[in-house]
Amino acid sequence: MDLINMELLQTTLIIASFLAIILFFSNLFDVFNEKIMGPTYKRVLKTIKKVFTKK
Prior knowledge:
Radius of gyration: 17 Å
Helix content: over 70%
Order of helices and strands: HH
Strand content: under 5%
Structural class: mainly alpha
Largest sheet: none
């Protein structure tokens, strides 16, 4: 039972940190959208899309 609980805790922590990272990056992109709108923002989005489509 202890092993199962540890595994559950680890997966929960991983999911939580992943969500936190996603939130952090979405906030960053909002800042980018407001301040550096234009070609740099679009380029960043394109590279991120490439990274995600490769997987």
